[in-house]
Amino acid sequence: MINRKFVNTTSISRLRALGLCQSATRASRWVAVAVAILLANHSVADTADTLVAAPAKTTTCYLDGLDEQFQCGKISVPENPKQPDGKQIDIHFAILPAIKNTHPDEALLAIAGGPGQSAIENAAGFDRMLTKVRQQRDILLIDQRGTGQSNILSCDDGDLNALNINEDDLDMLAITEECLAGIDADVTQYGSNIALKDFEAVREFLGYTKLHLYGISYGSRMAQLYMRHYPEALATVTLDGVVPMQQSVVAIGSSIERGLNVLWRDCKSNPECQQQFPDLVDEYNKVDQQLADAPISQKVRDPQTDEPSDFLLTRSKYSGAIRMAMYMPNTRSLIPHAIHQAAQGNYQPILGIYSLTASSTGIAMGMHASVVCGEDIHRITEQMRKDAKESYISSSMLDGLEKTCEAWPTKQEDDSFSNPIDSDIPTLLLSGELDPATPPNWGALAQEKLTKSKHFIAPYATHGVAYQSCGNDLIAQLVDQGSIKEIDGECLQKDVRRSFYLNANTVEALPIASTNTDIKTDTTAPANTAEDKE
Known about the structure:
The protein is of the alpha/beta class. It is built from 19 helices and twelve strands. The strands form two sheets. The chain has a ten-stranded mixed sheet with strand order 1-2-3-5-4-6-7-10-11-12, with helices on both faces. Helix 2 packs antiparallel against helix 14, helix 5 crosses helix 17 and helix 15 packs across helix 17. It is globular and about 60 Å long. The N terminus is likely disordered. Pfam families: Abhydrolase_1, Abhydrolase_4. Keywords: Hydrolase, Signal. This is Transporter.
């Protein structure tokens, strides 16, 4: 569902490292496409009511991936809240109306990730996941300032072909300066706290007395800020794929390394995967070292256009493709086969995964930079920098972001921004054991001062537990009951693991001459731990 005008795909090759959330609406068609390819993919606590400069209109609209009629509208707000008579920008919203609206004064606000994703563009995914909530309450989607239809801060990627660029040749400082020059906005006004004012202004305009929040990935930071600044407006909160206030998102590098280690573990403990790919880690490292020495060029057919194209496989593309594929169970299951084939000199499977993931995030890179450069980069310690040097993924990620932030004007948040949220709002926290971006210990960190909360770890989920498990049922229960007391996460124990692809066609093993009878099956799932605070 990505719209390429929203994204600088060239910068994504280098900077997508912090795209914390995948577009949920693409997940259902990833595997089919991938298999086809394999065969041939801060704090501001002012009141919000001073922000609305003009009345909004709500009109009937249609949304991508859905065939119903919905209600869409916008409000106009000052770009700089301290200059109410200055430049105005429009904040767009969409309402997925309740099927039977028994709570007309309530809505669930679903907040997208990124930072930089459009909530409205992800309407279909939110609708499917929140279908039980929508039976009795509206679902409210707001394009955060700088994303989607709300004065998007995007960068033109020109005529560059993402398949054959060498990211090491890119001058990130010059690219950032060029992007900045093309944006008609005061980019210092697109941080999370200012955007939060817009959310509250929309709530007041629409007349909802209470909101239930669902924040996915970076959206969980926005939800926590809502808890800090406007607690009286909230009934319940769900944080999924949690980014705690205490954590800089730049620390995602170590989370990616953890995600890889969990992948190696899962393959090793699966007899078929271990038998088919007994040297998976060595093969991964072999290809990584080859690409560290020099990129590999091949003639291929573009997976999107089927036109002949030059594919330059770089170390950045290779690690980026595997990293992004770990976000969803279906693409994660493709990774061992793709690595094994690359080690044999066949790079088509990696091309397939790369092509799927390169255009799946839908991130507005200008907004992304405004958030990360103002809220995260200054929180990097010397120890974190030292640790990052131990990993190519972490070091290249940090290097690219520091070059971007060197050129990007920001208003740096003070130390209080990083304080844990102290709240008694009923809060559900969901973490995936297999998450390569926001690991379970991040959820535990966010829960520190949430006095009425439960944290569940889904043993078989990656990023976005509610999309992959009964997590959506737990959200509906929380919204319906307004309490976490009766919520039991036992359903998350259901084994929904996806088998690894052992070849281009199937998850079943190919016939082999002999079997290793010493391999034992590990059927023990990671514990579904729940920290209760009531």
